[in-house]
Amino acid sequence: MDKNNKLKKYKIDEPKYQKFFEALGETSNEKIQLFYLLSLETGLRVNEILALKYADIDENTIKLSLTSSRQRKFEIGINALVLDAIKKENLLNPTDYYIFQSNKSNNVANKPAKHLSRQAINFAFKKASEITGYSITPSKLRTIYIKKFFESINKQAGHIFDEKTLKKLASK
Q: How far apart are CA 131 and CA 109, in angstroms?
């Protein structure tokens, strides 16, 4: 990894996830690690993260406007270290539109910019899985986020969700 890598300082509470994060850095690049952290910290879906633009990032938040059958706009707070890594990516690639812009789209004249594909993310995760022996996917990171979110609500509000209910909520 690059010694200027801002994400190198990032520590994840769970050793298993930290090891996987480091394996992503060894087998791919800092953008894939950034994807991993955004997924783990925000619970966003793969396509939502890949479609993030630098214009969506504001001082400590991601401002999203999701288009689906119903318009949804919301803001998500992000870690300062992750925010710094996004800003560093923007400085390194000032002409990029997407945070996770595909390098292939830069080489094609008169073609609109494209973000990385799901296949590129899945390939990087598969390589890291082979190194660590941990079967971690982008979808699993979303489930982990949701489970932690509901556990924090349990602690704060005094509600008690059993494991079955947490799994059911995470699957939605």
A: 37
What pLDDT is attached to residue 136? 92
| Beta-carbon contacts of residue 79 (< 8 Å; ≥ 6 apart) | 37, 41
Q: What is the pTM of this model?
A: 0.78
Residue numbers in the chain where pLDDT is lower than 50: 1-3
Assign residue 52 a region (left: φ > 0; alpha: ψ between -120 and 50; beta: otherwise). beta
Of residues 161, 105, 170, 121, the one with CA closest to residue 143:
170
Are the CB atoms for 105 and 113 separated by under 8 Å? yes
Q: 83 phi and psi, to 5 degrees?
A: -60, -45
What are the two backbone dihedrals, phi and then psi, of residue 125, each rounded to the nearest 5 degrees?
-65, -35
